Every structure is written in structure tokens, then in C-alpha cells.
Amino acid sequence: MKHQHLQFFLAMAEHGSIRGAARALGLTQPAVTKTVRLLERELGLPLVQRTINGVVLTEHGHALLRHAQRVDTEMRRTADAMAARREGDGGSVMAAVSASAALTLIPAALERFLVRLPRARVAMIESSLKTALDRLFDGSLDLAVLQLGPGEFPDHIQTIKLFDIEQRIVVRRDHPMRSARSLPELMACRWVVPQHPQWRGVFPTPSFWPTSMQPPATVVECSSLTIATALVRHADFVSVLPALSLTSLPSDADIVALAIEEPLPSLRMSIVYNADTPATDASDAFMKCLVAAAADWQPEA
């Protein structure tokens, strides 16, 4: 199976037609058709089905697509890594970070990294855990810096713990339940909680919620700190936030932490990476800078 054949297949999947793929690749339609048929013959599986609107992937085509995307990304990563060594430009790093990571580690780690590799290219996105895991699998991310709760990951996903982060139950300052001191008192409230793969049950339930209690009446899943704080401030929602996030809120946010009796589990600020994808020199250097920055910085108690 040739990389070029996979590139033709990816172009066809992206554009949804032989004509669109041929135009994008600068080739004739018969050339693209022939290549895809060769790929189908080699694999012994039908990959595409023609329709009046173009082509659609078969079940086998969809299965191939994810693997082909990963192979194509890895080929590009390899070429970029070798070019970085040849040209001495430091290479590139693509990282997903949480808001909490951005408030703590990223500034110091990035400063260290750019001292070591001043010509390196760095790109960062704010991401949820689920999105980061998908992109680590397909190779479009080098690493992620996120806070993790309890739970296991696929074998190819590895983590490096940097430090623990305490959590706080928060409400707006004049919330009707601002005097609550236990989780049962908050059961009838509307909650906005971080998206997390380890939630249990049919209905989304915060991972810290006692198994002996009914889940909250209303739970909104949210991967954005900005959205969560907006719902707390303006819609009477209760939320759980990393303690360090509270110090970054504007003075007029009017969000307060409740003195809840039940202990809340800590989160782990961690580097997350795909062990099946070889680290580039740049991504390896960035991970080392994150570890060094974590050793110099500790969250407030």
C-alpha cells in the first residue's frame, strides 16, 4: 500500500467526489478513479460507493479513513522533523491545553522552551479531554496538558502527572443556596459540570457525587471555563471548578466557593500523549520544559 494511494483516497473522502479530489490533487478524474480501484483491489474491500451527488464511503471506507488520516499525519510529522534537523529551525509543537494549564504552567514552560529552541513553531488550542484524545490518536496533536480525574485510558495513551489540583463547589455570591454546607442540599439545583469520560450512569453525574445519592436534577455538560462561569454568574447554576481557576476570575465575577463538608477528589494536572506516536525533538523538549516548570510552581493551598 503506497502513501500516495492513501492521499488520493483522503482527498476523495474530503471532497466527496472524484472530480473534487482530482481538482485538489491537480490530476485527471480517471487517474484518481484508477488509484482508488487499485487500493480496493489490494485490500479486497469496497471503499466507496457512487451516488448521483458524488461518492460516499462504505463501512470499510470509514474504517480505512481514520487509519489513513493517521498514516498521512505521521508521514508529514516525519518529514517536518527531518526538515527541522536539516534546517535547524527547531521544528514545531501542536498542543492542546486546558484553561487551568494556561493559567499555571504554560507561560513558564513556553518561556523555557523558546530559550532552548527560539526558532520553533508552537500552536496551542483549548480543548476538552475527549477532543484531545481523538486528535492524539490521529496524530494531529503532539501532546495535551489537561487536568484529569479518575479513570483509565486506552493502552496507547500515556500520562505524566505534574501536580494535584483541588476542586471547589461554586455559586454566585447571592445564590439562594449560598449557605449550603453539604451536597444533598444542592441536589435540586441546576449544575454545570466539566465533560468527563468517567461519568457514570445513564444521566451525566459529576464523578465526585456519592453513589448513594440521586444525581442532581439538571446537569449541563460543558468543556469551557468561560461558559461554566457565565452560567454560574447569570443563571443560578452550581458548578465545580479547579481552585486555582477562582483566583483568575475578574473581581466583579461575584463567584464564591462553598464550604462543603464532603471531600472532593483532586484532579491531576498531567501531560497526555500517544505512546504509539514517536515524539519529535520539539515535542520532547516541550514536555521536559513542562515538567521543569511544574517543579518550580505549585498551586496555592
UniProtKB/TrEMBL annotation:
Domain HTH lysR-type: start-end pairs: 1-58
Recorded GO MF terms: DNA binding; DNA-binding transcription factor activity
InterPro entries named in the record: HTH-type_LysR_regulators (IPR050950), LysR_HTH_N (IPR000847), LysR_subst-bd (IPR005119), WH-like_DNA-bd_sf (IPR036388), WH_DNA-bd_sf (IPR036390)
Signal peptide: none
PROSITE patterns per record: HTH_LYSR
GO CC annotations, alphabetized: cytosol
Domain of life: Bacteria
Keyword Transcription regulation set for record: yes
Keyword terms: DNA-binding, Transcription, Transcription regulation
Family stated for the protein in its record: Belongs to the LysR transcriptional regulatory family.
Name this protein carries in UniProt: DNA-binding transcriptional regulator, LysR family
